[in-house]
Design a protein that fits this description.
alpha+beta; five-stranded mixed sheet; 37% helix; globular
Amino acid sequence: MKTATLRTIVQQSEVFVSACEPVRSHHVSRDEPHAKLTPNPDSARHAERDGYVPLRSRIVRLLILGLVVGSMTSVLAEDSLRVGIAESDITPPVGFPMAGYYHERLADGAIDPLKAKAIVFRDGNTDAALVVCDLIGIATDLSQAVRQRAFEKTGIPVSNIVISATHSHTAPDYMKELYLKLGGESQEPLRAAYIEKLINGPVEAIVKAHAAAKPVTLECGSATQATPVSFNRRSVMRDGSVRTWMSHDHPEVVRAAGPIDPEIGLLTIRDTKGEPRGILGNFALHLDTVGGLKWSADYPYFIEQALRKAAGSDVISIFGTGCCGDINHVNPRSRDRNKADFIGNSIGDSIQMQLGQLKRLERTDLVVKSRVVRLPLQDATKEEVVRSVQILAAAQRKEKVDFLEHVIAYKKLMLDQLRHRTPHANTAEHITWGLSRSLAGIGETLPATVTVMTLGSDVAIVCLPGEVFVELGLAIKQGSPFRTTLVIELSNCVETIYVPHRAAYAGGSYEVTNSALQPGAGEMLVEAALSLLRESATASQADRTAQK
């Protein structure tokens, strides 16, 4: 609520009331009800002394009071936080390429739909939107297209719009088709049509959520995932190296290379009747639990089904993937693999059991801050690019190629396009994932945005680019001045690929091999996030002081 605005209304009303007060009081004898009104100075003095207010003055004051209350109500309605939630379908057609691996897979059906789910915050100061999509990642080209269109349709500033991905591996491999579409190049009609749907879907969700924004009650807190569904997938070996996806039965394994994050961050949105309308959840677990050739949102689909059974069939579950670059669902101490339905139902049960314990937000003033961080990119020399083209050609011919060499070759061709205005190779002939119009020839650093949205002094939503290691997310939570901090990865930019912490580069293995960034880039994101959180907390505190 704008204290200065209300103060102005009250001051103006007082001036108006004073101007409407009669200069003199009038007196009518009770014995002469029809007598002519005549000024009576003595009566006026007695009225003032006795606290008597003439009838006309009382009517004027009541009218002014009504106007003031109406104005204040209007200001309160305009300035109090309103929240809207909406979703749209972004499921591709059969025959569209699937993401997640280093060879082409064409979808032959769907298990469950892919969606874009948006939450929009609106108050008298500003608006903000977060839309989470059932995608492997958010290409910078897609982010820019969605945010610009959403701004044109809603007025939400581009810098206040975040589009994030859940990281489903049974989602579309869309980046080359987007690249062709944006460049006006020839492509199959079915694929071109889907790219329009892919851009319009998140925009539609934002527009609908913006229009549906209403006063709500917000509750925040967290649940702990007690049933083991997430595991650090990197292991320290006896020779000091780190390897990914190792069974801990292996005699050379010493221990897990890092922790997990068992916290499920929660923000519940209830309507004015107390009914839950949406639940924003945040948990650190890699999505790759389905496989096959059918579209699926992976385990977040089952989270929503579990929550709808408990809280109502209209509830929209928005799942923001936490920092899980080194976390997956395979228990290294067991031969069993957790499946999507078990994981989703287990997380959903953990959430619904905690819903009654969440804390209601008393203050909901919205602060949104963002910062572009220029992350240092690795290089791709001409010799490396030539070698990479040879390796990818061999893989295309189905020849045996070492997995990590395949990963490096793919990454080097992507870096060749990003680093050099005139690439050493024609990148679009060799790769699909990683092609970019907006980042081509960007140079030595990758411009990536960190965005922070805060509500009062209790809730912070931190949005980071890339697949971020869990230790970096935990560092942000530990340093956050907000009681509940949700850290959502894969936001607005995926061209970083993995974002390890500095120490991980010493150990090596898959995630480090598959990072486009130089050591220290992850810590730059943490520093930017904590700085923005501190700025937001200061701004929120200043707003609170102004309201007193």
